[in-house]
Amino acid sequence: MSTPATLKALLGTPHLSRRGLFAAATVAAAASLPVVEVAAEEVIDIAKLPRVTQKMVAPPFLPEHTQKAEGGPKVIEVTLTIEEKKMIIDDEGTEVWALTYNGSVPGPMIVAHEGDYVEVTLQNLPGNIMEHNIDFHSATGALGGGALTKVLPGEQVVLRWKATKPGTFVYHCAPGDVMIPYHVVHGMNGAVMVLPRDGLKDGEGKPLTYDRAYFIGEQDYYIPRDEAGNYKKYEVAGENMSDAMDVMRTLTPTHVVFNGAKGALTEKGALTAKVGEKVLFIHAQANRDSRPHLIGGHGDYVWEGGSFNDRPDTNLETWFIRGGSAGAMLYRFDQPGIYAYVNHNLIEAVMLGATAHVVVDGEWNDDLMTQVSKPTPFTQG
Ligand SMILES: [Cu+2]
Fold this sequence. Notes:
The structure is a single chain. The N terminus is likely disordered. This protein has two domains: about 160 residues, Cupredoxins -  blue copper proteins (Immunoglobulin-like), CATH 2.60.40.420; about 150 residues, Cupredoxins -  blue copper proteins (Immunoglobulin-like), CATH 2.60.40.420. The chain has five helices and 21 strands. A hairpin with a 5-residue loop joins β10 and β11. A six-stranded mixed β-sheet has the order 13-12-15-19-17-18. Strands 1, 2, 3, 5 and 7 form a five-stranded mixed β-sheet that branches. By secondary structure, it is mostly beta strands. Copper (II) ion binds next to loops.
């Protein structure tokens, strides 16, 4: 597949140093062009920054992190290992050869603070079949890093990007052309959370904290069927390519699930919390729109578009996750019991799989809700 000429031109341009930018400004002044004032920024010597390794964990959990940054900017080293693996995605044994970062769908959450540098080692396991890469929506330049991270099986590449914008963001594989949607709808996506250095704030600048955080990655799958209507099984990754493209063209997913499989976040996989705890839910959808709703609760604070630089919405009933983005919602649980966190397209929630449960421990508050009388027969009058 050929690279577009514009992109080639882009990639062929040497990176401008800060000095180069000033030189460009001087040239502009000499030519009587308007000069953009460049604020004198502190020059950061990346080689002297402290380095920390962030251990990736499988969703719905987040890596260990502090809500406020401790000290100055750091280089956060993470390793993402690409694995093509067969996964079961529902309770009927439906299979998909998933394309994964670190073996999970979605891939692991990376957490940084604004001003940190994220240094990613991307490894494509030797047993894999396909070329892969990674496009970070949180990063600036080179197709989110996609143009600098293409790796064949057996190769690894290291990319460093600066976390300039606080918020929640999707990352995904984008190897080019139709391989982009193919890889994304086979599970190859995850999320980054860039926290403000002094933590989250409400719209008035007051600090917001969370007691727990969960990463919910919504995944649409397009599984081909045989003539009898049964989901087809394949021997190796990529063997379904032609069949899957036909299903993808219908724009009608066969499965819409949280964290890789129908039921991944219910029963034994249910999320947990306690009455009085504030829980941050980060919801990513790399390909398709979604409308999360917490049945029995509310979106106290919702960064719908994912930007922590912007004032959060408050007290939302249902919110919106644009396909290709991640958003965050903070809720304080006031009542025990089972809450369902769903995509409130209820067909997708109940029939296609987009339901998670949150099991909340604590004491029931009769003031908030009570069953005044149990069901009894009545006479229609
Ligand atoms: Cu890929």
